[in-house]
Amino acid sequence: MGAANSETANDPIAILVDDNAEVRDSLEELLSSVGIDSISFSSAQEVLNTKLPDRPGCIVLDVRMPGLSGMDLQQVLAIKGILTPIVFLTGHGDIAMSVEAMKAGAHDFLTKPVRDQTFLDAVSTAIAADIARRAASAVARKNSSLFETLTPREREVLRFVVSGAMNKQIAFHLGISEITVKLHRSNMMKKMNARSVSHLFNVCQSLPADIQCQLKTASAAGKAVAESAARAHFA
Asked: Domain holding 30: CATH number?
């Protein structure tokens, strides 16, 4: 296994997995020429036996290797929740294989021999995608932490606010005064660092799936309350 040129956590790194030593050396040299760190493995099992660096990057993966194949490794990594983008690079690929790999979440599928620039473009695009994914994940963790600071009542108010319900409608549903709703709403907006309702909506869109599910369920209830209140008003 080759050593990375840098241990800087934010520097991108390409993880090369190929049983051909000449291929690994050639790819490492090519990546080094454009300033991309790399580490290499001769088998899929070697990857699974190693703690991979927590850095943005991509996995360049051969398909046919002794033991676990590249496609097998792709499945195992997915099960483990390792979301680093995969670029397949193989001399034994076909259309059916590439379709299967892409359906399973591969970022790209290249066949050997491949032009240097085509390879570098694929790696750069995959790394950019991983950087964006990590950034979105960091935002989700931050906003989830903010959500956890809300009181149960503030969470109820938030759910109605993102559903489009007005303060009067929220007060009617929760059985509290409109002034109290405004107080909870103000506290909730401050805790969520939301500048406006539209900003709050965007913040909620980045929350984990289980919280979003709660919000959508409450949102449907909030809309029903709003419609009911409107009917009562015009009755």
From this structure: 3.40.50.2300
Exposed/middle/buried for residue 212 (C-beta within 10 Å: 0-12, 13-18, 19+): middle
Q: Is 14 helix (H, G, I), strand (E, B) or coil?
A: strand
The verdict on 164 and 131 lying in the same domain is no
CATH of the domain at 168: 1.10.10.10
Does residue 208 register a pLDDT over 90?
Answer: no
Task: Provide the H-helix boundaries in 106-206.
Answer: 116-148, 152-162, 167-174, 178-191, 197-205
Do 187 and 117 fall within a single domain?
Answer: no
Could you report the per-residue pLDDT of 102-112, keeping only the tens digit for each? 998 999 999 98
Domain contains 6: no
Residue 8 has pLDDT above 90, yes or no: no
Residue 147 CA to residue 204 CA, distance in Å, equals: 9
Number of independent structural domains in the chain: 2
| 172 and 72 assigned to the same domain | no
Q: What is the pLDDT of residue 18?
A: 95
Q: Of 211, 58, 40, 39, which is closest to residue 133 (Cα–Cα)?
A: 58
CB 146 within 8 A of CB 188: no
Last residue of a domain, one of 97, 119, 138: 138
- Number of residues assigned to the chain: 235
Helix axes 167-174, 209-234, angle to 10 degrees: 100
Nearest to 172 by CA among 162, 154, 160, 189: 160
Quick one: tokens of 7? Answer: 């241990």
